[in-house]
Specification:
The chain has a single domain, classed as Rossmann fold (3-Layer(aba) Sandwich). The protein is an alpha/beta fold and 213 residues long. 50% of the residues lie in helices and 14% in strands. It has a 6-stranded parallel beta sheet with strand order 3-2-1-4-5-6, sandwiched between helices. The chain has 10 helices and 6 strands; from the N terminus they run H-H-E-H-E-E-H-E-H-E-H-E-H-H-H-H. Helix 6 links the parallel strand 5 and strand 6. The radius of gyration is 18 Å and the shape is globular.
């Protein structure tokens, strides 16, 4: 891949995060919740991704059965069909356009991804950029240095349950995590971040720019 092409891809990627996925005020968040058919007082947990065992869908089913008062929004598709769980607290939506998906990142109380070995999952980045608290397995959370991530052991459903209970039972903690998520996502300024990646991939930035002229 030519250097100029790689640079363009990096800049477009971070522009996409910083412009499309952004946080909103609590008032607007409540309005979006109502537009999504959610009440402002129900606990809403969001999963976005492939419906597969690797993504931990079987753990989400266990959690949904343990906590019937929690509302789960599962957005995506795959080999597992959450509809087949026949649980009234689970809503399933197909993969959505990014602009529409943003509404659910804003409406939810927390994003949950109970998989392992994810690297740097895009859905978690999108959630943080919208000011949505994120809960990940400890191994996945390591990719987000200093991020305000709720960390759990994805191999232990009870541990996931306990961690989520602790957060969802404390509205002050949720609001704090929202604020921290917004601040953390600011480091994804697309110009500055793309420039750092250019330096990593292509060496000194001034030399890189000179090579394009």
């Amino acid at each position: 891949m030519m250097a100029s092409t790689a640079q363009l891809i990096l800049r477009v990627s971070f522009f996409y995060l910083s412009i499309l996925f952004t946080a909103v005020t609590q008032l607007f968040s409540d309005q979006i919740r109502r537009a999504c058919g959610l009440s402002c007082d129900e606990k809403t947990l969001l999963f976005v991704g492939r419906f597969t065992h690797k993504k931990g869908l079987q753990k989400l089913e266990s959690l949904a059965r343990q906590h019937p008062t929690w509302t789960w929004l599962c957005i995506g598709d795959g080999e597992i069909r959450p509809e087949d769980w026949r649980l009234p607290n689970v809503r399933v939506l197909p993969s959505l356009p990014q602009a529409e998906l943003r509404q659910y990142y804003i409406a939810a109380d927390i994003f949950v991804l109970p998989s392992v070995g994810e690297g740097f999952p895009l859905a978690a980045q999108e959630a943080l950029s919208c000011g949505l608290p994120v809960a990940l397995d400890r191994s996945t959370a390591r990719a987000f240095a200093d991020a305000p991530i709720v960390q759990f052991d994805a191999e232990n459903v009870e541990n996931i349950s306990t961690k989520l209970e602790d957060v969802l039972s404390d509205s002050a903690q949720i609001q704090s995590l929202r604020a921290q998520s917004v601040e953390y996502a600011k480091r994804w300024n697309w110009d500055e971040t793309a420039l750092r990646y250019e330096t990593i991939f292509f060496g000194d930035s001034d030399q890189f720019q000179a090579s394009l002229t």
